[in-house]
Amino acid sequence: MSPPTHIFTKFKNFLTLSGEISALFYNAIKCSFSRPFYLNRLADQIKNLGVGSISITIVIGLTMGLIMTLNFGYGLKKFGGVLYVPSVVSLSLAREMAPFFTSLIIAGRIGSGIAAEIGAMNVTQQVDAIRALGTSPLRVLVVPRFWASVLSLPLLTTLSFALGILGGLIVCMSEFDMSVGFYFHKVFWTVRPEDYISGLVKSGVFGGIISILACHKALKTRDGTRGVGDTTTWVVVSSSICILITNFFISKLFLVFWGQ
């Protein structure tokens, strides 16, 4: 195959994949507002994807706060800017670091979990059995996981942000002799409601991306257990890349919208 033909084939496959994912997203939204509703499955997925990710979110949030404050603190100390550390850390966490890193790490857990579970169901013909019973796999498998991810990621991001602020406080008190009152004064003075909103919107979008990519690839899984492994790897890598790219455009959109 010549290079131009190879490039054309890759581009064609990319457009086909994009169309299939977009169609799945559209159908998932459409099914979300028509009966039947599987609220018990939604609750189960929130428990599995959201509550099950609390422990790793705690580690992510606290570690981010500690590391960022330590590096920013000693970096700004050279220029006499230690007093600005709470402002820089809190604003970075609210806008970027908390939603971005939380979603990126959680993508490994949520994405791989969805891909492995639905992929295994597909290769063992359990998805076909759902269709044979007259039930839509989209409603039973995709919609609950999509909304569970969209709802859970902002809550996990909020937890990550709060723990990041706590980690920053620990470092500021122990390393830079900063009082609790001054630290929180700088945090609340710097971070505005729109900064929180931008982070929550980002994490919700990232949650939707992770779940849709995982469900789409899992429903097309073939070749038994090997196919499940390939699907899981593809989902984690693709989700991470999409989060990286989408993060830039959402950040730019908010900056233009609010004129910041």
Protein model, in words:
With 260 residues, this protein is mainly alpha-helical. The chain has one domain. The protein has nine helices and no strands. Helix 8 (193-219) runs antiparallel to helix 9. The protein starts with a helix and ends with a helix.
How much is the radius of gyration in Å? 21 Å
The low-confidence runs, each spanning 5 or more residues with pLDDT under 50, are none
Biggest pleated sheet: none
Distance between the termini: 49 Å
SSE inventory with pairings:
Elements: H1 3-32, H2 39-50, H3 54-77, H4 85-123, H5 126-132, H6 137-176, H7 180-190, H8 193-219, H9 224-258
Helix pairs in contact: 1-6, 2-6, 3-4, 3-6, 4-6, 4-7, 4-8, 4-9, 6-7, 6-8, 8-9
Write a short abstract of this structure:
The protein is mostly helical.
Key features?
260 residues, mainly alpha, 9 helices, 87% helix, 0% strand, elongated
